[in-house]
Amino acid sequence: MELDNITDSKLKDMVLIVYVLQAVSLLVGITLIIGVVINYIKRNDAKGTWLESHISWQIRTFWLYLCFILVGGATIFIGVGYIILLIALIWLIYRICKGWIRLSENKPIY
Fold first, then answer.
1. Given a cut of 60, is residue 1 above it in pLDDT?
2. Residue 93: inside a domain
């Protein structure tokens, strides 16, 4: 898919920045929150574009990862939490990579 105009190009740059923030969150957790705030602010700007799927993907990634972290943290004392946290980390890396690759190909995420 081609970018329609400068607005799409700027929106694509913003989506890329959020993927970068998600990746940096592996070292500095707060950037994941910053990314989802940006997503909610720019969500309406992406309505009807191929980038809308990326923003939804990023928002869903945040909320599901948060759920995994909460469940993993709550069950860490019985040992299963460590497995859940490891799976959550691998899943987050997968979501960032898949989204970033599809974005670089100018394709929606699904």
1. no
2. yes
